[in-house]
Amino acid sequence: MAIRFDEKRKIFFLNTKNTEYQIKINDIGMVLHTYYGASVDQADMSYMIKEIDRGFSGNPYECKNQRGISADTLPQEYSSDGAGDYRVSALSAVMANGSRTTDLRYKAHNIISGRENPTGLPYVRQENDKVDTLKLVMEDAISGLLVTLHYQVFADKDIISRYTEIKNASDAEIIINKAASMSMDFCGRNMDLIHFHGRHAMERIPERETVGHNIHRIASKRGTSSHQNNPFVILCDKNTDEWHGDSYGFMLMYSGEHAEEIEKDQAGSIRVVSGISDDHFSWKLSPGDVFETPEVILAYTNKGLSELSYLYHRIIRENVCPKEFRDIKRPVLINNWEGTYFDFDDKKIMEIAKSAADAGCEMFVLDDGWFGERNHDHAGLGDWVVNEKKLEGGMSKIADYVNSLGMKFGLWFEPEMVNEDSDLYRAHPDWALTDPDRKPVMGRDQLVLDMSRKDVVDYLYDSISTVLRSANISYVKWDFNRSCANVFSHDLPSDKQGEVLHRFMLGTYDLMQRLRDSFPHIMIEGCSGGGGRFDAGIMFYSPQIWCSDNTEAINRLIIQKGTSYGYPVSTMGSHVSASPNHQSGREVPFMTRALVAMSGTFGYELDPRKLSDADRSMIRKQIDTFNKYYELIQKGRYYRLSDEATESYFTSWGFVSEDKSEALVTLVVTDVRANPEIIYVKMRGLDESATYELDGILSSIETSPDDAFFESSNKIGNKYGGAALVNGGFAFDPMFGVYPAIQLHFKRV
Predict the structure, then answer these.
(1) Coil, helix or strand for 561?
(2) In CATH, what number does 3-320 get?
(3) Would the pTM count as exceeding 0.70?
(4) What pLDDT digit, counting tens, does each position of 549-572 carry?
(5) Which listed residue (246, 278, 368, 479) is catalytic?
């Protein structure tokens, strides 16, 4: 098995193909984290721990004369509050007598083949992988609190996932105020933190900073994983780059409020804690009750950030996303939102669908405005009934027409929201998250439904299912367009209001799972104003998520690059939109917009009727190109080929097939210069012993300045050695015009 317990040394060894994770039980039952990194052949790494007496770091009572043994200085496997560990904790609880001390010690363990799944939460699916699980039970003997740490080892994929089960084994009530999924301590490391911040329409911007002697807190208190801080962080050595160096990833599979806390302590050790944010959280555990935390996906490599990304891309594609959509060709879609907004009727929609079909689109998606009295964003949310004043003949008429054109049909929903001006709110005002006797905060003139209530989830399932059964619908876009506030459930007592937001997420996951079970052929694309819930939790139900409401190609370069550190291209909803762009007003060539959008699930966000004949013909060329390279883009290995030093000038990225037989490289020049420097890009992942032929070029460049006298050297049929492309690189011809872009395809010969 991939997990072994050495009874004599009291050490757990968790081994993957290239990594090793060690946990040691000391003489008084403290569970210590002693190692995570490259394989060390099961050497006892606890020799790295130095038991030094540090002033003001107290000692367990049984070690009161062994002052080097302290919860405050030893590396803990799961940290708790009140028993002498003054660093950020993973667990905080209040006992029935008011005590806030939790002192966890080893009680038992079990090693099993396969895995157990948390109840009602997303997780890393076993699929066809061999998985071994360690269940390590810790106990606070005084309070009767049991904490079981679950470790799932995906040995062949160099992935370990963790979640925590907290049980009240006493005969009195316990209140949990913090229940993180994991904590981990690194002794004596000088590390950087990479996290992904942002805002609506500008999500997951990578930021790298030194871990100093303070507490870094990457968190959301918005009710969602948020545009502002993604629940994925990386710790890496100071010298780590794309291709070299130690890097550790911590990805929380959760779509609600989260917190990642990184603290460098007084002695230079670094602790990372990840899980549900404790900002608005508390949970009442009655005797016998169990609370399960979300799962965290851990990955380590000593081969740099690119390899870390690959580990996450593979596990998400193959073990997180629904397998029904993992291997099938997903259709190139067109969405009417930016083409019409709310201003449409059945005639206009059918005209747009016909124009899109003629251009080669494979699915038409009807966005917001088809239901209730939804003629603007002030009314109708919650009333999931087709507005037949706008769509005469109902949804089946539209779907049948779209199908007759050879396209699939998709539909937009925003299940968790309600307008005050809606039949649903007038009938059930208590179904919204609102404080008693207080006017609520509004967002987009809408309120948030209380998904912690079963009656709300049942209503949504019934009403949405009725629509989905009424027509041949193949796709649902699931939106969430505001942050949560006034978080109060009219269905829970006052002492359980701290449970609302987690129960909210359990309700959302339950609704998603019920709809997935009832309509397994319908693919859900997640969305929250674009990328406000872009996380591995949503990906468990939805194989792709609308990456950002910002469709402007030049902004999308950094958005999609930041997203790529943890999430595969196959999950990134990315479309070609109109120019000038509706968000930024920037004008970008049609082909450049397409080449950027091709590094995603690909589609269009415009009204094709308004395009010239030449542009409509270009759509077909773009779709044909994307479909030609579909397998390579969606399943090939992705490489970031440019870095911060060059990206003021250009951005480049590439894909290489698993068998290294073909590669696709894209370059966008963002700062076109007179008398330009030559752009050199080193390619990655090729077979260095092979020869590659340049057999495909797609470019936005149509003209060059009259005085730019050069003959292109990058021609179809040119051959290059794999070692030359990797170690020397590729020299691009000068590129001119407005945001020029080029895509090159190489095949092994």
Answers:
(1) helix
(2) 2.70.98.60
(3) yes
(4) 999 999 999 999 999 999 999 999
(5) 479
